[in-house]
Design a protein that fits this description.
45% of the residues lie in helices and 11% in strands. The strands form 2 sheets. Strands 4-2-5-6 form a 4-stranded parallel sheet, with helices on both faces. Strands 1-3 form a two-stranded parallel ribbon.
Length: 209
């Protein structure tokens, strides 16, 4: 199945019960900033099954597909997909999300403090919708900052109630993987270890390879 065929098929599923609340959230966020674009979450993910949130910076060029998806044609998505695969994490148990859910103007790659702050309420809503989440994997500095801001804004209570664990790992963007092959492998392995631990805590068995 080609990329375009895949996403056309996924578009027909965005109102499925397993993803409809997230679709509504993304559309609401887009309406809040006229002229902005907030990609939908690939329906391969499932709010009723999700245990792990994969928190990254902002929509990248691959989201021209209209989705945050492991199938997007960009290095960031490909690297996260490789991490899921190495950990044996089925997509239905994870949800990709962005610190700043709106597409950055001019293809920017860094967030201002105000943009990080703007991500607090959407993260709160995501955590309400994905009610079985027991882990947040914060990829990169901005993700770590948002998690800390969310904790100060009431997130600590959610963490305590649900036993959520926060993992801080490297961004999946190419710029975060500038280094020797040995270093790159080490960073990748750290990500896989975080997801593997999150799965074990949630009782999610890795897929058989």
């Amino acid at each position: 199945m080609s990329q375009s065929e895949y996403f056309e098929e996924q578009l027909s599923k965005v109102e499925d019960e397993s993803i409809a609340e997230l679709t509504a959230l993304c559309r609401k966020l887009q309406d809040q900033q006229p002229g902005s674009r907030v990609p939908l979450i690939d329906p391969i993910h499932d709010v009723d099954e999700a245990r792990v949130i994969s928190l990254q910076i902002a929509p990248g060029p691959g989201t021209s597909s209209g989705f945050l998806s492991l199938r997007n044609d960009d290095p960031t998505a490909a690297r996260l997909a490789a991490v899921y695969d190495a950990a044996g994490l089925e997509p239905r148990y994870g949800i990709p999300w962005n610190v700043f859910p709106w597409e950055l103007p001019d293809g920017g790659t860094k967030l201002t403090p105000d943009q990080v702050k703007a991500g607090i309420r959407p993260l709160k809503e995501l955590m309400r919708i994905a009610y079985r989440t027991s882990a947040i994997v914060a990829h990169g500095t901005e993700a770590k900052r948002l998690v800390q801001a969310w904790i100060k804004a009431g997130g600590q209570q959610v963490i305590n109630q649900r036993g959520i664990k926060i993992y801080e790992v490297r961004s999946t963007a190419d710029r975060a993987f500038l280094g020797s092959a040995e270093k790159q492998q080490g960073w990748f392995d750290e990500m896989v270890a975080a997801y593997t631990d999150a799965m074990a805590r949630a009782g999610v068995r890795p897929t058989q390879k």
